[in-house]
Amino acid sequence: MERAKMAEAESLESAAEHERILREIESTDTACIGPTLRSVYDGEEHGRFMEKLETRIRNHDREIEKMCNFHYQGFVDSITELLKVRGEAQKLKNQVTDTNRKLQQEGKELVIAMEELKQCRLQQRNISATVDKLMLCLPVLEMYSKLRDQMKTKRHYPALKTLEHLEHTYLPQVSHYRFCKVMVDNIPKLREEIKDVSMSDLKDFLESIRKHSDKIGETAMKQVPGAQDLVDFSPVYRCLHIYSVLGARETFENYYRKQRRKQARLVLQPPSNMHETLDGYRKYFNQIVGFFVVEDHILHTTQGLVNRAYIDELWEMALSKTIAALRTHSSYCSDPNLVLDLKNLIVLFADTLQVYGFPVNQLFDMLLEVRDQYSETLLKKWAGIFRNILDSDNYSPIPVTSEDTYKKVVGQFPFQDTELEKQPFPKKFPFSEFVPKVYNEIKEFIYACLKFSEDLHLSSTEVDDMIRKSTNLLLTRTLSNSLQNVIKRKNIGLTELVQIIINTTHLEKSCKYLEEFITNITNVLPETVHTTKLYGTTTFKDARHAAEEEIYTNLNQKIDQFLQLADYDWMTGDLDNKASDYLIDLIAFLRSTFAVFTHLPGKVAQTACMSACKHLATSLMQLLLEAEVRQLTLGALQQFNLDVRECEQFARSGPVPGFQEDTLQLAFIDLRQLLDLFIQWDWSTYLADYGQPNCKYLRVNPVTALTLLEKMKDTSRKNNMFAQFRKNERDKQKLIDTVAKQLRGLISSHHS
């Protein structure tokens, strides 16, 4: 029962499913009916479904038939119309066939074009992809090209920056391309190339500034600022930046400093002939200035490439070497003008470097040493000047024939003489040409000394002291030696010596004007404490004294020359009753000589005259007592007495004014007393009064008397050998022996 119920239920359910499928088939699009039919076949009752499907088809056919029957007339009409359309359709078919044929023909070209279009679109896509890739690569290539251009034009620092951008920004975007790998591998080589090329540029720069240091220094010493503009420092900056970017700044700094130290040593090595010309010194200074102008600019335009300690070290080395070189080479210089020019050059050198901040006190200290060298060269030059003046002088008073000439001489030399001014022309100055010439040359020397002191930053007192000390050396050493050389000259005459004494007297008086002259140019009063005094007075006094001594010596030599002409017959018994010819000539010479002494200071003339008389008296005494005169007669002694009287007469005549009474005659007192003793044969008085302060023959020495007596004794024995039996001769001989014995006794007692 239950089975029957279950079978009935299943039958109802199957029928319902079949009905649903049929409805779905009727309502579903033919294209989508496949899944519906598959569900039928998937089941087990497709036979019953087919039965139902047939039943449903029949039902529909009956409905169609009913409908067709209902619309039959319309169907007939439609068939009629359809037949009509058939003919038109055939025509249309033909037209469509023809059109299709034509379309197929035309379509072939279109298909070909479409294929071409397809290929173009493919190529377009490829090109677009390629362009996209190239757009990524082009900046890389452009940067690489830019890098090459920069390196080609030696713009190395921008090239290094470009290389950095290329490496870190552009290449990573296209790193998968093969050419990029080549670039990446080439980057270290490019860095080294940039490094090497920039170093090469630096070396060229260092060589260039080494060669052009003198030009830089010359410009700096002429105008100071702007000298560094002559140099293109870009190679240094580029190389510094490049090495800094590459992390090798310290290497670069060490290399730069090492090379510049080497160049400094070369610059500071002076040429061996530097002292010969000023240009030698100028080039030497220009190179040093140029070197430090460059270093100063580097110091202030780079951060740490060089520092102040490095610059100071170089400057200390430069100072020591420069000063040593100047000491050595200036010592060879004998031209004061060159030394003065050198001093001005050193001052300019020091002032220029001082503008750049370098300490130059040592240079100015060294200039004080050069000042001594300059002073020595001046003294040598003026020694020649004085020598020429003294050699060319005529040693005669300057004659003047007009007022203009007189004023010209007075304008050259400070001289005032009221008496001379009143005298009519022509007239003469008492001094010779060398007085105004020497005076003016002393002033020129002072001017030359003053020139050296300029720009040395010395006080007026220091300048005054320097000038006075140098002038003192000129007077006490140079001029004094020149005067002494003239005075000691072998062929100097008495007239020249007299004129030298007159000249030095006037030069001595002019010393106060030289003091005033120095005071006027230095503005330092001579009364100022520590002011050096001029020693001109001493110089001219010494020269005058030397000339005086030379006059005395010269006079004595002249006297000796006359005495060499003396030809006494010591054995004569005759008397000429007149003085000897040589002595008369000698006295005449002395009179004419002392007449020239009128312009000499009185004391000089008196001393010269007294010296001459003393020398004459001494020489006559020596002539009388010389050993070669072994014998002499009383007659010869009397002739000799006439000559002495002539000398005494000359002394009494006052050849030089200023002597008191018989002062000049005292020069001959020894001779006079000796001759009187022998001629008057007044031995009793001599022997009796000997040793008394007021004795008549006080000036007669017993040794002298004995010597002369011995000569007369020998003569008496020889000439009177046949008259020895005459009583008076024998008595006289005994007397001579007695006197001689007594004289020996006096001599013996005196010595004891």
Automatic annotation (TrEMBL):
Biological role stated in the UniProt entry: Component of the exocyst complex involved in the docking of exocytic vesicles with fusion sites on the plasma membrane.
Name of the protein in its database record: Exocyst complex component
Source organism phylogeny: Eukaryota, Metazoa, Chordata, Craniata, Vertebrata
PANTHER family recorded: EXOCYST COMPLEX COMPONENT 6B, SEC15
Residue ranges annotated for the Exocyst complex subunit EXOC6/Sec15 C-terminal domain, each copy included: 362-711
UniProt family annotation: Belongs to the SEC15 family.
Gene Ontology, cellular component aspect: exocyst; plasma membrane
Annotated ranges, domain Exocyst complex component EXOC6/Sec15 N-terminal: 52-221
Gene Ontology biological process terms in this record: Golgi to plasma membrane transport; intracellular protein transport; vesicle tethering involved in exocytosis
Keywords: Coiled coil, Exocytosis, Transport
InterPro entries: EXOC6/Sec15 (IPR007225), EXOC6/Sec15_C (IPR046361), EXOC6/Sec15_C_dom1 (IPR042045), EXOC6_Sec15_N (IPR048359), EXOC6PINT-1/Sec15/Tip20_C_dom2 (IPR042044)
Gene designation per UniProt: Exoc6b
Coiled coil: 82-109
Species of origin: Octodon degus (Degu)
